[in-house]
Each structure stands twice: as C-alpha cells, then as structure tokens.
Amino acid sequence: MQIDATGTMPWRPVTPDDVPMHAVVRYEDRGRSVLGTAVDVLDAHGRPSLIVLDDDGQRHVAPCDVTLEMRVD
Q: Organism's domain of life (predicted)?
C-alpha cells in the first residue's frame, strides 16, 4: 500500500471504463461529493457509467462524463 507525504493513500484520475469492480472511487455530482465502491456498470449510450455504493448503502450512478478518481492501494 502506498502512502503519500500527507500520510493518506493517493488518488489518481481514471475514466469509468478503467475502474475495476470493487475499487474505491470518488467524484463530484451536482455539487455533492460521492465516495464509494464501484459495484456495477451500466451501458449508457455506448459509454460505461459506474454504479457506486457509498458507506450508507446508497447507490449512485456516476455520469459518463464525470471525472473520477480511484484510490490507489
């Protein structure tokens, strides 16, 4: 596991089709920060959209054009 200089795990930008299942991701959606685990993929007009499960058990659909960050372990 890599730790950066601040003592936290680093994040790296990824596209939705580069996120493996069960990876921890974060993104901004309509001014709200979403953090959770990638659990499924939807085909949205030929582009993948991730379904993200947050800590409260809520499911979120990450829009196709959103900038995602994946936690690097």
A: Bacteria
Give the number of other Cβ atoms within 10 Å of residue 19's Cβ.
20
The predicted model gives 7-18 an average pLDDT of 82
Distances (CA, A) of 26 to 7, 36, 46, 71: 18, 7, 22, 8
pLDDT of 23-71, one tens digit each? 999 999 889 999 999 999 888 777 778 999 999 999 999 887 888 999 9
H helix count then E strand count, the chain:
0, 6
Nearest by Cα to 39 from 49, 47, 31, 27: 49
